[in-house]
Amino acid sequence: MGQIWITGSGIVSAIGIGKEETLDSLLAARSGIGALQYLRTEHHEFPVGEVKLTDEEMMHRMHIPEGTPMTRTALMGMMALQEALADAGLQPHHLPSVGFISGTTVGGMDKSEIYYLDFLENNERNDYIRTHDCGACTEMIADHFGQFAFTTTISTACSSAANAILLGANMIRTGEAECVVVGGSECITKFHLNGFNSLMILDHAPCKPFDSTRAGLNLGEGAAYLVLESNTHARRRGREAQAVLAGYGNACDSFHQTASSPNGEGAFRAMQSALQMAGIAPAKVDYINAHGTGTPNNDASESEAVRRIFGDRIPLISSTKSMTGHTTSASGSIEAVICLLAMKNDFVPANLNYRESDPACVQPVRETLTGRPLSYVLCNSFGFGGNDTSLLLAQPSHPHSFHDHGIAQPVYLCAAQQISIQGALNEEWMDAPLERSESYYRSVDPDFKAFIPPLEARRMGKILKRAISTSESALQAAGGNEVDAIITGTGLGCIENTEFFLDALCREGEQMLKPTYFMQSTHNTISSLVGIRKRCHGYNVTYAHKEISFDSALYDAFLQLRLGAIHSALVGGHDEMTPSYFNLLTKAGYLGNDSEVAGETAVSLVLSHHPAEGVTPLCRIAGMKMVYQPSEERLRQQLDDLLGEASLTLEEIDGVMVATNGDRRHDSVCMRQFRQLFGDRPVLHYKHLFGESYTASGLGLYAAACCLKQRRIPNSLYAEKATPDTKPLKAILLYNTDGKNHSLILLTR
Question: Which of 591, 506, 478, 549 is nearest to 130 (CA)?
Fold first, then answer.
């Protein structure tokens, strides 16, 4: 594998709009943290790092018509992406072959918290319901510039943007892409400001990372994107590298939902993995851009992890959050661009406000150091749930090669378990499906006490209980208790807890909010809680991109298994549906049409190269393709490539599982596309049994796997009357689309 070059970048934060302003602020050690100006909140006692533009000013800069439903997260993302594309020389005609991966946690919460009561009580702001989820923000950013080849959204709290960089790099290393734009965007909201305040980790003064008197973090906002390319692709375009992505690592601290472990285990493993991937000794690292939030817990934990890696030869280190504030989901890419600027201009940014040393912490750089060439730089991003990611950047003049793990091996689906409106943890639906006549159903749950102690369960929402139960059951069925990675898709996350916190915020004010609801509102709560319970320190990432949330999680696992980076993975698809959110989605036109049924999803799969002894896999995942707004020709080419790589013809596909859901408009588009792609192949469907949700495709894959396991397709899955073929099943293909995103997943015996 050749190098992965960074050929362009763009940034927006409290210290500047664009790289030029950002560089000036960094060299001058000028902070952008100050009193609140733009966010309408009761809490003016907390300094923050706001981008110094109103939403209207950003819309004007991006030539967006007044009155267009738009979020602050999307607007900042557009400004940063515009600079990154221009910097890399990417024009609109290049984008159909370029991927776009963005990280965010708040999504459109800035508008949802303003209009929440309007959503519930009238129909004046219904257009903004569609802007709430994370994937909607990503697509608004992408669509402003043209037609990207691929989009998805990562939501792992404060490591989101850094993990977007990891996925983009893996796509390039596997040959799935040659050029991917990666990063993240996040605005300050009342929801997050009050959430962090409820945890009592906000400082009333400018933050002091690593200082003995540090008292908490300052929230910030912003966006940044990097253009990653294979070196061969960049050379064909006549582009040079700004830096090389030499290594990266993600690990789960497996300690606590919001606190870091005393020994920094997750941070240690993430940094170690990045160095090992690049084959670089710790002594070669010249500078560490620390996560360095300014909280007593984080800074001591990160310091211990750094000492474990570097011993008594700790590189220069600083936290630039003392200038930008903590930009949460965007921090990984914002700080990566800051590292690029430091490497290009031979300086080390200052760690502002550091005065008194703490024996528990490293001693950071107090003032900007100029004339300091940097060959290798580590950039750390750590999120809630112990989601820890490190990036290793290198000068282009320092050659390296990835330490790859060997030749890709078959990927087997070893076990699958579900909880849905069809019941829990069984396959009875295949012969005796429950009849459903209403438009909205909650899942039929098992006895959770079989998996979770009652004292522990009483603090959990049902989505968490379902995730734990399906995960435990799937791992047991797979003959083991450990996996190398836990990867989750969820369109809405713990929406019930999010609603509890948001409702209290809007009705009761900002003074007496409960931290438990906030702690369990982030999308990666599900994946991190499973990791904490299983003491799994491996890769742990969450995807939140509308109807392809589960597909994105599966895609990530499939790529890493192909790379040999992991040998097993627990992949989940989890979404709950509250009565109020069902009503909102009905208002927005997503649900409640015709014979459509809304449901909830809890599905967990165990994938592996090597099934445990005595375990017969359900099927093999033979291939997977994901595309965004493709032409008919490109979608056909993706299907041909998928079948060709598996040495199958279309005629050998026993059935195609489609995402029809009872809505006439959606289904007519879906079936028209189906006929163009698959001709007269048997049509299979599943949402009439399991209901519609953002991760319903996970239940579709589960149903197809059950068919291959039992070597038959039940009549309930045929969309049209058909005489089941008597020959043994060979392959089933899943085709999932929401009209813009498309995924093709091939399962074989």
Answer: 591
Cα 592 → chain centroid: 28
Q: Tell me which of 66-75, 195-204, 343-352, 594-603 is least confident.
A: 594-603
Beta strands 376-383 and 347-348 are: unpaired
Q: What six digits make up the tokens of 521?
A: 């509102």
With CA atoms as reference, report the closest residue to 253 among 220, 297, 286.
297
Query: What is d(CA 17, CA 4) in angstroms, rounded to the nearest whole number?
Result: 26
Average pLDDT over residues 64-88: 97
- Give mean pLDDT, residues 449-463: 91
575 CB-near residues (< 8 Å, 6+ apart) = 463, 490, 491, 492, 495, 549, 600, 601, 693, 694, 695
Share of the chain above pLDDT 70, in %: 97
Dihedral angle sign, alpha carbons of residues 46, 50, 53, 59: negative
Instruction: Quote the distance between the C-alpha of residue 167 and its chain's center.
Output: 9
**663 contacts 593 by C-beta, under 8 angstroms:** yes
**pTM for this one?**
0.96
Q: What are phi and psi of 23, to 5 degrees?
A: -60, -45
Is the pLDDT at 44 greater than 70? The verdict is yes
- Strand, helix or coil for residue 435: coil
Pairing of strands 485-489, 539-543: parallel
| Nearest alpha carbon to residue 71 among 133, 158, 4 | 133
Answer whether residue 78 shows pLDDT above 60: yes
Say which DSSP state 453 is in: -
Structure tokens given for 684: 């299979």
Q: What share of the chain is helix, strand, coil (3-state, %, to 5)?
A: 40, 20, 40
686-733 pLDDT, tens per residue?
999 999 999 999 999 999 999 999 999 999 999 887 666 667 899 999
Evaluate whether 322 touches 206 at the Cβ level (below 8 Å).
yes
CA–CA gap between residue 529 and residue 370 (Å, rounded): 43
Q: Residues with catalytic annotation? A: 158, 291, 326
pLDDT of residue 407: 60
Q: Give Cβ neighbours of residue 31 (< 8 Å, ≥ 6 apart).
A: 14, 15, 25, 49, 206, 322, 323, 352
pLDDT digits (tens, 9 = 90+) for 120-152: 888 888 899 989 999 999 999 999 999 999 999
